[in-house]
Amino acid sequence: ANFLVLPQTGELQLVGMLDREVQSSYSLVVSASDNGVPPRFGQAFVRVVVLDENDHPPVFQLARYTAELPECGTGAGISAYALNACLRALTITPTP
To answer: For the chain, which terminus, N or C, has the lower number of CB atoms within 10 Å?
Structure first.
């Protein structure tokens, strides 16, 4: 479990690492009871959404590119080559 509820304060604490690429959200049920006779119970439903962080560098399709340009008719400001880089794919699995 990545979360812990402190019984004395009810504070929800993170006890593990979060990674949005692994799991984008958590659905938690927090239960509480009193010491009465008879005891009474309550529940709260908590949804934790993990925000994405820029933790993966862009990836180029190839590791090395070669461009051949003529020396005549080229100058500053001329487009020489177009490269594309993309971010690592993110797979999102919905939680019920």
So the answer is: C
Inter-CA distances, 53 with 18, 24, 56, Å: 11, 12, 8
pTM of the full structure: 0.55
Q: Nearest to residue 43, comparing CAs of 18, 78, 10, 73?
A: 10
At which residue do the structure tokens 């009810």 appear? 10
Q: Is the pLDDT of residue 95 over 60?
A: no
Query: Could you give the 3-state DSSP secondary structure of residue 76?
Result: coil
Give the separation between CA 45 and CA 32, rounded to whole angstroms: 12
The pLDDT of 29-49, averaged and rounded, is 92
- Residue type at 8 in one-letter notation: Q
